[in-house]
Amino acid sequence: MISPRVRNSLWFLLLISVWLFPGVIGRDPWKADEAYTYGLVLNIMETGDCVVPMLGGEPFMQKPPLLFITAAGFGKVLGPVIGLESAIRLATALFLGLTLLCLGLASRELNGEAKGWLAPMLFAGCVGHFHELHMLITDVALVSGFAIALYGLALVPRKPWVSGLITGTGIGVAFMSKGLLGPGLIGVTMLFLLCFRTWRSRAYLISWVTTGLAVLPWVLLWPGLLYARSPELFNTWFLDNNWGRFLGAAKIGIANRLGLDDSRYNFFFAALWFAWPALPLGLWALWKEKRAAFTKPGVQLPLLSLLVILTILTLSRNGRALYALPILVPTALLGARGVGWLSKRFAKGVHAFCFATFGLALGVFWLGWTAQMTGWPGAIWQRLHAKLPNFHPAFGLGAFLIAFVFTVGWAIWMLRQQKDAPVNAAVNWLLGVAGVYLLAMTLWLPLAESNMSFRHLTSLRQALPVGHQCIRSVGLEEVQRAMFHYWAGVKTLRTEVNQQADCDLLLVQSDIHSEKGRTAPEGSWKLIWQEVHSQKELFRLYRKATPAGPVSP
What pTM was computed for the model? Predict the structure, then answer.
C-alpha cells in the first residue's frame, strides 16, 4: 500500500513533468537565442574545444561555456538515442530540475516542511517565462545558479559549512552561465543581509569563508585557461561582454527589450506581470504577517534578493526581458508563504476562474487543431493558411494521445477536487498554464515548426558544387550563421569582418519584402540556390562565373 506522502510526491513529480518536458523534447532549435546556442554546442561536439566558444568559425565571447559544455555532453551520449536536437536540449531540463529541487529545499528551510513543494509550483506557474525557460539559453542555467545559492543561504543557521559549499557552487554556476552579473547580484545580497540581526552571526561568517573557498575553482579555471589561450579574447569577454554590456558600451546582437518604455524603472513594472501569481501572493503574505514578517529569515532573504536584482537590473544600460528571469526565484519563495493565507472563498474563486479560463483556452487549441486536420471551421483554417501558406498539416498519433489524455485528466481533476482548499489554488493555476503549453507543444507544434525551424536549410548541402573553395557571406546574422553550421555544415567567411575574402561561392541574407534585398549582387554571379525562412528572411547562394561563362552546379 502506497503511503499518502509517497502518493503525493508522485503526483507532484507528474505535475512538474507535465510542465517541464513539453517544449524541451521533440522540436527543432528556434530563433533567436536558442538557435545560436546550438551552433556553439555543435562546435564543442565537433572539436572538443571547451575554452573558446566558436560560432560559425568565429570566436563568440559573450558568455562562459557551462551550458554549452553540458549540452554537448548530452548530445554526445543521448543524441543517437533520442535525436540530437532533443538530447542537446536536455541540458535545459537538467538546470530546470536543479532549480525546482533547490527551490523546494530552500522553501522547506525558510517556510516550513509543509510548504516546500509550493515554491517550485509557483515558479513553474509564473507567466513571465511561459516559453523562455524551455529554451536552450544560458539564462536557464543562470536561474539555476540563483536557486542553488539561495538554498545555500537558507541553510546558514543549521549547517553553515554546508551552506557555504552550496552557496559557492550556486555562485559558480551563475558565473559560468552568464559571467559577472549573477555573482554580483548574489554577492550584493549576501552583503546587505548583514543589515539584519539574524545574519550577524558566527554561522554566517563561517558560511562566507566556505563560500569563498567553494567559488574559487569556478571563477579561476575557465578564465585562466581562456587568458592562457588568448589575452585578447579574455579582454573581449571580461571587459566588453560584462562591464561593457552593463554600462551600455557594448551593443546587444539580438534585440528583445521589455516592450514597456525606456524608463529606468521598467524592470519594477515588468515584475508585476512577469512573476504573476507568485509576487502578488508574496505581497499578500507580507500584508497578513505585518511587521513581524520582516524579522523572519524566510522573508528577509528572498525579499532582499528580489530588491537587489530589480535595482541592479534597472541600473543596467541594456534591458532584455530574459534578464528578469532570476526574479522568479525569490518571488516563488515569498509566494509560498502567501498560499497559506488564502481564504476558502478565494480558493473557490480561483478554481472557478481556472476552470473557465483554461478550459476555454484548451477548447480553443482543440478547435484550432480540428481546423488544421479537417478544414473545419473554415474561417480558422483560412486564417492559418493565409499566414503560413506552405504549412501542410499531418496527424501525429503520439502528440494527439498526450494532449487527449491530459485534457481528460485535467477535466476530471477540476470536477472532482476539493474546490476550497487553498493549496489547490496553486495546483489549479499550474495545471492550467502547463496544459496550455503542453497542447501548444503537441497539437500545434507542427504549425510552429513550419515557421520557426531552420531544418529546410539542409537543402543547401545538395546545392554546394563539388570541389568549391570557400563561401563568402553578406548580411548573415548570428542566428543564421549557427543554423547554417548546424543544419548544412556550412561555415562562411563574413564580408563584414573579412573584406579580402576571395571565394567562389557567395551566400546572401536579405529581407524578402525589400526590393533591394532581392537584387542580385554586382559582378558575374549565378544564382544556384535559395530558401525563405519565416516568410521574411531570404537566403541565396551564388556561384562565381568563369571567364568561359556561367558554370552549372
Answer: 0.93
